[in-house]
Every structure is written in structure tokens, then in C-alpha cells.
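ok trying this again, last paste got cut off
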Amino acid sequence: MIDHLGIDVADFDASKAFYDKAMAPLGGSLLYMVPLEYTGGAKVGGYGRDRPVFWLQEGKGGQKAHQHVAFTARSRAEVDAFHAAALAAGGKDNGAPGLRPHYHPNYYGAFVFDPDGNNVEAVCHDAE
């Protein structure tokens, strides 16, 4: 059910150097860097074997670190329903359901902040 997760890191370059070496024996490597225009200028990179599943995000200097977790949805309708239910439960919108083609052409996700400020996502990777 977990599709991918991300952690904040204080020094992206130092963490990247660590995970580049630590992931290699597992067959994992840095597969994708999110373009800076989508991250507010923070470095964000994803590790995996076939697709990014473990993400590093450059920390936000002194603010409380919030984590990211994405749950796999079986359809785009489930993504839409997740977003609506999360908002109804008191979550705050962090990205309405929709395509995110900067990840890949069929990436359909929705994002909410939970009560503690964690970024929670539902994502479907299938074509409509």
C-alpha cells in the first residue's frame, strides 16, 4: 500500500553521497531529481531500482521536519476520493487531484497536510 516515502535532510549533498553508496549494494540508485521550479528551490531526489520510491528533500532550515508518505491508489477515482475524504477529515489541501507529468506521463496524485503537517499523498500510476 505504501507507494513511496520521503525524508527531510539537513545537507542534501552529504546525504546524497551517503545514499549513493548505501543503496548501491541493494541495486538502488538516484533515479530522478525534481526540477527546482517544482520544489521552491529545494533539492529533491528519488532513489529506487526501477522507479523512485525513497526520496530525500533538502530541509527547510530550522523549521520542524515534516515527512512525506504516498499511498498507492488503484484508480484515479480512488485518488479523488482520498483527497475529498482527507479534506473532510480536517486535512489541508497541498495539491488537488491531477496529473503531475513532470514525474511521468500517467502520474496522477493528490496531496494533503495531515494535522501534524506531514505531506500525505495518494497516487495512481496507471493510464486513465
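PB: full thing came through this time. The two ends are 20 Å apart (CA to CA).
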